[in-house]
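Q: I have 260 residues here and want to know how they pack in 3D. Can you give me a structure?
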Amino acid sequence: MRVYLVGAGPGDPDLLTVKALRLLQTADVVVYDRLVSPEILSLVPTGVTRIAVGKMPGHHCVPQENINELLASLAAPGRVVVRLKGGDPYIFGRGSEEALYLLRRGVGFEVVPGITAAAACSAYAGIPLTHRGLARGVRFVTGHFKDNETLALDWDGLADPETTLVVYMGLAHARQIGERLIAAGLPADTPAAAVQEGTTPRQRRVVSTLGELAAAAEAAGLSSPVILVIGRVVELADALNWFGSDPVSALPKVSHRAVH
């Protein structure tokens, strides 16, 4: 018996892996998070047991410990149990915590990677994470710590103008993140963007600067789930904005506006 820890990707069902889709269509039970899009849930056949264990910002519908126990209790010979997680199970998805618990309980598991939000949502927002002459590397960090702990990040290390910084779950702390990065030496006029529900028909983005991003996202009424992308690559957001808009012929530039 085993549990499949499956990455659902960022929301667009066309971005599911072939293996993820196969497991969804042969599952007996699907245990899913809030970030799994309704479009992907619609691919689960009628009659399959669905169990929602989603977490809202600041409110955990089902504690992680209970999710772990649930997965172990559902595992049975011949039963296909799919633990469906937004993005990739091992990138800020607690998939490894669930895998370790299953291992301790003697339950087999298999990990099916998914496209993580940083790669997909940035691409759908017209932002390449790397670009020659603009970014030599990428860093992924979380903007939300367990039990609302203080954001104790390496601000000096993150304030690198040669690196693209992607912040998961960073909307609630966007102002603090901007202030700390600027205090660590990253220029306030560094291009920055916020992308809400990337890759879905509900995608919205705000393109601004590090110093103004929090205010711009608030003015636009963005709401979770949102990723923040900070770095010079955001300069390309208008020129490469292909999703849900007409091609842009203007030269790359930093703008301060919401795009619906």
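Q: Anything worth noting?
A: Residues 246-260 have pLDDT under 50 and may be disordered. The longest strand covers residues 2-7.
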